[in-house]
Amino acid sequence: MKIKACLFDLDGVLVDTAIYHFKAWKQLANSLGFDFTEEQNEQLKGISRMESLDRILNWGKLQKSDEEKVALATKKNEWYVAMIEQMTPAEVLNGTVDFLTSIKNAGYRIALGSASKNSAIILQRTNLAHFFDAIVDGNLVSKSKPDPEVFLKGAELLGMKAQECLVFEDAIAGIEAANRAGMRSVGIGSPEVLTEATIVVKDLSRLSVAHLHQMDEL
Ligand code: B16
Ligand code: MG
How many domains does the chain have? Predict the structure, then answer.
């Protein structure tokens, strides 16, 4: 079926905010008396804020009450927001602006499908907001990826069927969410990791409208 809409994950696909998440979570872990590695941080990609905190506390072998967890997540978010407020359009990932421009000119509808509750600040600071016909982020969904809610809501807001949507994702959980939504996907990263994606590319600079036409048949 013909692809009519593109649904983009944010962190790891359009911008690299993972480094800021890492710095802020590390600061929090250090303040609690432990540390975690960059490899462990990989497991937090695409995962919601509270789920990330649960995993980190687990690594530090700490137990906290629900109230304490909210306070810790709030503290981390304040540090994180201070960092992303300094972001500039120069931090947009390779090929992103050209690809978004060409698909928009070709008439594709475009939505965001991110777990982040901070997507508005990031899209504004990096000058990407104007490309989007719909924004679905952590403020609109209750179930995080691999649940398909975020992408199904994107399709609904754009007035599209799931089979008309193509998802762009860097996280395994995000590709699983696309598959569960009945959507085709472009994995951004390595084919060894994103084995369940329809196709995998290194970044958006590898793609053009002609590739999307080829995917109509997949
Ligand atoms: P926030 P994505 C995700 O963004 C990040 O990959 C993940 O590390 C983060 O915990 C999550 O957003 C929530 O972010 O704390 O800003 O609400 O990849 O879904 O765009
Ligand atoms: Mg991501």
Answer: 2
Element (H, E) at 81: helix 66-84
On whether the pTM is more than 0.90, the answer is yes
**Strand pairing report for 184-188 and 165-169:** parallel
3-state secondary structure 15-45: ECCHHHHHHHHHHHHHHCCCCCCHHHHHCCC
Residues 169 and 113 in one domain: yes
The whole domain housing 44 covers 18-84
Cα angle 178, 149, 180; round to 5: 35
Q: pLDDT-based confidence at 216, cuts 50/70/90? A: very high
Residues 10, 67: one domain? no
Single-letter amino acid code for the residue at 22: F
- How much is the CA Rg of the chain, to the nearest whole Å? 17
- Which residues have CB under 6 Å of ligand 1? 9-12, 21, 44-49, 52, 77, 114-118, 138
Do residues 123 and 148 both lie within one domain? yes
Give the Cα separation of 92 and 82 in Å (integer).
18
* Tens digit of each residue's pLDDT (9 = 90 or more) over 59-71: 999 999 999 999 9
Ligand 1 pocket, mutate which of 17, 122, 176 (most atoms under 8 A from CB): 17
